[in-house]
Specification:
Thiol Ester Dehydrase, Chain A; 12-stranded antiparallel sheet; 12 strands; AfsA-like; globular; 320 residues; AfsA_hotdog_dom; A-factor biosynthesis protein AfsA
């Protein structure tokens, strides 16, 4: 089912939302898929413009990367690597809803995400970049007819060149089960609104997009977020969003000594539990020996109450 055909179904199946008023448009004015399908609150944050099924579990998704955006901001005339992870996240949710029948109110949990990219192919040209992404879904698991987990693999091309490859696992739970599991968690009002590190230290220009607060210890920060930043917070109401945690990884890499010019070419992250709004979640980074001579690998972890929330690894060696 394509985006135009699904839009009528969407307005009928989501009575709590206002029906779409004509085709939704993204940051550059192009037509996008409905934001509900990719769990976005702002139309400007939607990257996907359409999709089609190639065969049973293989799909083609059309993408636009904006050359102007207040969060996914090009840096040094290059698209930020965060766009690869966000493209993968949006494509997975889009296909889960439209092709695998997942209700819009169900909750997604990213288990892990791994991607490799070519920084030399991320240059910003005139206008937004057109990306063609092939998504292959596998290990599809259902329970009582409902999708509960799957693995997705993405190959993203810009013209004839492969820009990035990505893979990850996602779990899905019903809204009722999620409420039962999470109803006692700290509310968003307890989220740390600590003073951020200087934006330029983490590749940002606006403190609203900084997710690290300084501590007396080197390479250790407190996770923080601006609750009014809808791009980062997304739909999450009882925990820090996965986007915030992945952004914390990138910012921790840049904030470390001697890494301000670090150019990521690989990224992997494993999520072990939700990052609650309280007590504080601590972000730590350290450089480890890299497999490729002359390259750098940084390991970043998030911990809360002594428990590991996530562990990530970012490298600057070109992987393909």
């Amino acid at each position: 089912m394509h985006s135009s055909a699904f839009r009528e179904h969407l307005s009928a199946s989501a009575p709590g939302d206002d029906p779409p008023q004509g085709p939704p448009t993204g940051a550059e004015g192009w037509e996008t898929v409905p934001r509900e399908l990719v769990h976005r609150l702002r139309a400007d944050d939607v990257l996907l413009t359409g999709w089609e099924r190639v065969d049973d579990d293989r799909f083609r998704v059309s993408v636009r990367w904006p050359d102007r955006h207040d969060h996914f901001t090009p840096r040094r005339r290059q698209y930020p690597p965060q766009l690869v992870g966000e493209t993968m996240r949006q494509a997975t949710m889009l296909l889960a809803h439209t092709e695998y029948g997942v209700p819009l109110e169900d909750q997604f949990l990213i288990r892990d995400l791994d991607y490799r990219l070519r920084p030399d192919r991320l240059g910003v040209g005139e206008g937004p970049a057109r990306i063609d992404a092939e998504i292959v879904c596998s290990a599809v698991r259902r329970r009582r007819g409902r999708l509960v987990a799957m693995h997705c693999r993405m190959t993203a091309c810009r013209g004839q060149e492969v820009v990035a490859v990505a893979a990850g696992n996602v779990s899905i739970t019903t809204a009722a089960v999620y409420r039962r599991l999470r109803h006692t968690r700290p509310p968003a009002e307890l989220a740390a609104f600590a003073v951020p590190v200087a934006p330029e230290r983490v590749g940002r220009t606006d403190p609203r997009h900084v997710v690290l607060a300084p501590t007396p210890q080197a390479e250790r920060w407190q996770l923080r977020a601006d609750p009014l930043n809808a791009t980062l917070t997304g739909r999450a109401r009882d925990h820090y969003s996965g986007l915030i945690l992945m952004e914390a990884v990138y910012q921790a890499v840049l904030a470390g000594p001697g890494r301000r010019d670090f150019c990521p070419a690989s990224f992997s992250i494993d999520f072990f539990r939700y990052a609650d709004f309280a007590p504080p979640c601590w972000i730590e980074a350290h450089t480890v020996p890299a497999a490729t001579p002359g390259s750098t690998t940084v390991v970043v972890t998030g911990r809360q109450e002594g428990l590991t929330v996530f562990e990530a690894s970012v490298g600057d060696a070109r992987a393909f």
